[in-house]
């Protein structure tokens, strides 16, 4: 495999009041309020790191009082050690991806272990710490991370600044930046690496993971020169990730022809198989248009986040039904009839009531449109000033007019790297454009994004080609591979992602283990929301359990299971999570 290409390496030590896993906060600190900065206009690199770790934990894990983290499953022990961080490059890529190795002081040289992971969603470098770090570091493994060409290294044209290696803001030319787009006027808004690098990073997720692992091996050589070299032959490399990170490790598995990986555990992966299932862009653009109406059906009256405080559909949702009726896409004359027809349409497209029900959260937060607008720009390799369908990102501005771009609040801008999730809106950045002057203003932009998928012009062809380039390849036959996915996932429904992938592997003679976990959905962090967690169980404990069994196979002589029963999970209800609710076989 190609040697890793990287620049300056930043090495830092974390001991005493700081550590690798929680930045010294412990479980209570991670679950607490966002940490303040001594100088909000100029936070230090260590303050930014601490808050980035806190933000990443809170964005992935259910740390609420009823969630059971640290008591029923998981834990946040103190893990002193070192971090090695740099910008690595895929040959030919315009923008780097950030890579990081966490090396615990108690690294087990007798059981050489390197866990490699990729951030979920479009998160920054610590985006998988609640999975890979929380499991790997206590096992004495080093953990290598990649942001897979995404992250919150936002570039603000207003002051021509981006993010340096240490997470602090820097002007163009002052330091190497995580993302430095082509020059543009100060009014060009804000550029996001995932959407505006011109690289279609999703097509290279597997290469990002492999480069991160190669960087990890190189840093182990540096840390332990008398034990070098560290290679896949003497150091077991375990790949794990969730959501987009899960898709990334499955992409990497498909590139492994040299026994680079010892095993792979993917949670709720965004995985695409050519001519099987459905690409996320396809069903996301569909959901943005149709789900608001379908969720107005009385069948979803008890669905969390599908109804307002008085039990009626959210105000914009019946309007969507009326819009679809006016276009002739629905024929019903009442809201009840229209909602039932929209629901029937989604059934015909492979959606289940279970997936639609939990997708109410994604719909209520307008995430479908936000995801589709960003991904369309990435697939079409657009810049900040020419995103498809008239969308663009800009600061909301302090005290500005709603819906009108402004100038970034300098306090928010200073914290973007720590607080941002990689896909605006959020943290003082808005998604603008793609709107019409009508009772249903967001429909026009959503329909434009949908047309990029359903059309056949040169733009649609380019988008389809970019999505085809993200398809997973077949992993080697002897690779231990475990896929864990929530049966109630409404963001990446199993019918469109994991199930076609697992079926394809089995048809090709592979033997993946697949857990379709009842009552688990996509966002463990949402389980702390009132009325939401009662209906579900967290997915993280099942990922930890799969990793434990992989560890037993690799290091303790346990046979790799060939027939694993599905967990008999039960919803948490109104009380605190108990171990028995997980139903782990």
From TrEMBL:
Keyword terms: Hydrolase
Domain of life: Bacteria
One Gene Ontology term of the molecular function aspect: hydrolase activity
InterPro entries, alphabetized: AB_hydrolase_fold, OHBut_olig_hydro_put
Presence of the UniProt keyword Hydrolase in the record: yes
Name of protein: 3-hydroxybutyrate oligomer hydrolase family protein
């Amino acid at each position: 495999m190609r040697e890793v290409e990287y620049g300056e390496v930043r090495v830092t030590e974390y001991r005493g009041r700081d550590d690798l896993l929680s930045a010294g906060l412990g479980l209570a600190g991670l679950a607490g309020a966002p940490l303040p900065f001594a100088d909000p206009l100029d936070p230090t690199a260590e303050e930014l790191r601490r808050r980035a770790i806190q933000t990443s934990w809170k964005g992935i894990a259910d740390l609420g009082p009823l969630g059971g983290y640290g008591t029923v499953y998981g834990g946040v022990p103190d893990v002193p050690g070192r971090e090695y961080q740099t910008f690595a490059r895929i040959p030919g890529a315009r923008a780097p991806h950030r890579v990081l190795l966490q090396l615990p002081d108690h690294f087990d040289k007798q059981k050489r272990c390197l866990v490699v992971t990729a951030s979920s969603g479009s998160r920054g470098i610590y985006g998988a710490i609640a999975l890979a770090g929380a499991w790997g570091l206590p096992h004495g493994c080093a953990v290598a991370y990649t942001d897979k060409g995404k992250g919150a290294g936002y570039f603000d044209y207003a002051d021509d600044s981006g993010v340096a290696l240490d997470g602090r803001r820097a002007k163009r030319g002052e330091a190497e930046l995580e993302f430095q787009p082509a020059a543009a006027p100060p009014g060009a808004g804000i550029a996001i690496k995932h959407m505006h690098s011109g690289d279609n990073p999703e097509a290279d997720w597997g290469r990002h993971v492999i480069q991160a692992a190669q960087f990890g091996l190189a840093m182990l050589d540096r840390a332990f020169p008398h034990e070098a070299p560290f290679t896949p032959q003497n150091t077991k490399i375990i790949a794990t990730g969730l959501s987009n990170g899960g898709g990334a490790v499955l992409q990497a598995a498909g590139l492994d022809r040299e026994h680079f990986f010892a095993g792979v555990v993917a949670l709720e992966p965004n995985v695409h198989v050519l001519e099987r299932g459905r690409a996320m862009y396809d069903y996301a653009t569909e959901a943005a248009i149709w789900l608001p109406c379908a969720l107005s059906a009385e069948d979803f009256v008890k669905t969390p986040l599908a109804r307002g405080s008085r039990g009626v559909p959210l105000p914009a949702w019946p309007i969507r039904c009326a819009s679809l009726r006016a276009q002739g896409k629905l024929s019903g004359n009442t809201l009840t009839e229209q909602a039932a027809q929209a629901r029937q349409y989604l059934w015909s497209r492979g959606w289940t009531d279970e997936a639609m029900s939990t997708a109410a959260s994604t719909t209520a937060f307008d995430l479908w449109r936000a995801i589709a607008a960003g991904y369309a720009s990435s697939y079409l390799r657009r810049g900040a000033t020419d995103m498809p369908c008239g969308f663009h990102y800009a600061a909301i501005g302090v005290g500005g007019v709603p819906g009108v771009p402004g100038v970034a609040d300098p306090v928010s801008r200073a914290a973007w790297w720590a607080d941002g999730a990689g896909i605006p809106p959020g943290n003082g950045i808005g998604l603008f454009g793609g709107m019409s002057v009508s009772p249903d203003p967001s429909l026009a932009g959503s329909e434009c994004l949908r047309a990029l998928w359903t059309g056949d012009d040169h733009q649609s062809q380019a988008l389809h080609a970019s999505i085809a380039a993200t398809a997973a390849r077949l992993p080697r036959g002897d690779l231990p591979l475990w896929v864990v996915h929530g049966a109630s996932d409404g963001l990446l429904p199993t019918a469109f992602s994991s199930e076609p992938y697992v079926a394809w592997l089995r048809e090709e003679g592979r033997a993946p283990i697949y857990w379709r976990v009842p009552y688990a959905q996509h966002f463990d962090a949402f389980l702390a929301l009132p009325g939401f967690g009662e209906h579900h169980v967290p997915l993280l404990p099942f990922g930890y359990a799969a990793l434990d069994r992989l560890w037993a196979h690799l290091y303790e002589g346990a046979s790799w299971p060939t027939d694993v029963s599905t967990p008999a999970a039960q919803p948490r209800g109104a009380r605190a999570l108990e171990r028995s609710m997980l139903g782990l076989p």
